[in-house]
Structures are given as C-alpha cells and as structure tokens.
Design a protein that fits this description.
By secondary structure, this protein is mainly alpha-helical. The chain contains eight helices and four strands. A two-stranded antiparallel sheet has the order 1-2. Strands 3-4 form a two-stranded antiparallel sheet. The protein is globular, with a radius of gyration of 17 Å.
C-alpha cells in the first residue's frame, strides 16, 4: 500500500464509521438524558444531546486496529483514553465534582507516563537544550491534564473544539509526512482527523449533538499525547 492510499484510508474509514454511528449515539444520549439544556453559558436554543465523544472514540479504536502497531506506548494510550472517556461519559450523564474529574484525568496521565514511557524528558531545538531529569514526570502529567482541561473549556460553541482539533491533527499529519516520520503520532493524527471530521458533520451550527465532556476530554488527551510524541521526534 502506497503512502497516499494509506493516509486516505486512515482518514476516510474512521470518518465513515463516525458518520454512520452518530445517529445511534444521539438516540442513546437522549434516552439516558445525557443532554445540554439552554441557559447559563450555553447559547443553543433547544435541548441537545451530548456523548458525541463515544462516536469519536469508536473511530479512533477502529483506526488503531487497522493501522496501529502493538506496543507498550499504544497500550498505555488505549488504557489512558478509556479512563478519560469513561470519566467524561459519567460526567455527561451525572455531573461529577471537579475533584472526581481531576482524579480521572490524573489516572490517565499516570498510565501514559509510567507505563507507556511517553515523557517530555528533554528539549533540544533552536540551539536550546533542556534536560528535565526527574522533573519530566510531573511536567508531563501537568501537560496532559492541562491539555485536557483546555479543550474542555473551549467546548462551548458549535464546531469549536472539533474544528480546532481537526486543524491540529491535519497540521501534525502533514508535518510528519513531509519529515518522513511515520510513527505513532503520524497514525494518531490522521485517524483522529477522520474521526473529528465525522463528528463535525453533526456539530456545525446548528449542532445536532455535542462532544460533551467525553469528547472534549478525549480530544485534549490525544492532542497532548501527539504533542509529547512530536517532542520526542524533535529532540
């Protein structure tokens, strides 16, 4: 399989899956009352289902099964992503206390850093060389949790979090391709691009479904992982 065909398949297969199953996820969200109601910081005018993150996650899983390679790093990403998705799903159904959500975010970050060994351990770019040593662990955990919460905070407008995430995944995928680096970040970027584009079909104004905490937390987690893997490539 040539590179262009592989990239097209990595994008299109998760995209089609997300588009196909999103109506089912929407019905599920409505049936269990996982919805956003108008008022407060929400600008939409009618009750709108959440849990869009479930479909995005399904696209991610299918893409990994077809194009990913087994490794401790990928296993840690799978475990960590499941933890953060589950935390978000519960929060979409029964709002959790901030402390409880933070525990879920912390757990997924710990799995990635200690089991997967995905660390921001050093930076060597533009003539600057920094080696963080033992501080790499808390710095990496802080970075992952920070990215998760950043995406969570901007998930308030139709198409915003999904659009920003799609642009990020596209840019990372293009840069990795140009540089000829076809590691885990390359696969994750294009698989997640397809998944988020499929979600955006239903999330552009007027949104038919929101990503919810399940989706925004998961997107923030994957963005952090891809960034950390990219740091490894740069150094």
């Amino acid at each position: 399989m040539d590179l262009v065909t592989q990239i097209i398949l990595m994008i299109s297969i998760p995209f089609m899956l997300v588009v196909l199953i999103m109506p089912l996820v929407k019905k599920l969200a409505l049936s269990i009352n996982a919805v956003d109601t108008p008022g407060g910081r929400h600008i939409h005018e009618k009750v709108t289902p959440k849990l869009g993150g479930l479909a995005i996650y399904a696209g991610f899983l299918l893409g990994y099964m077809l194009f990913g390679e087994h490794s401790d790093q990928m296993n840690s990403v799978l475990i960590g992503s499941f933890i953060i998705l589950l935390t978000g799903v519960i929060d979409d159904i029964i709002p959790l206390k901030p402390r409880t959500k933070f525990i879920g975010q912390l757990l997924c970050a710990l799995v990635v850093t200690f089991y997967g060994g995905i660390l921001l351990s050093k930076i060597n770019a533009f003539g600057i060389r920094l080696n963080f040593g033992i501080f790499a662990y808390p710095l990496t955990i802080f970075f992952i949790v920070g990215c998760i919460n950043c995406l969570n905070l901007i998930d308030g407008l139709d198409g915003l979090s999904g659009g920003i995430s799609s642009i990020y995944f596209l840019m990372v995928g293009i840069i990795a391709t140009i540089q000829g680096k076809f590691g885990l970040d390359f696969v994750l970027a294009f698989v997640m691009l397809g998944s988020t584009l499929g979600f955006l079909i239903y999330n552009f104004y007027p949104a038919k479904i929101f990503a919810g905490d399940s989706g925004s937390n998961f997107l923030g987690f994957i963005i952090a992982i891809i960034a950390l893997l990219g740091f490894k490539n740069v150094t």
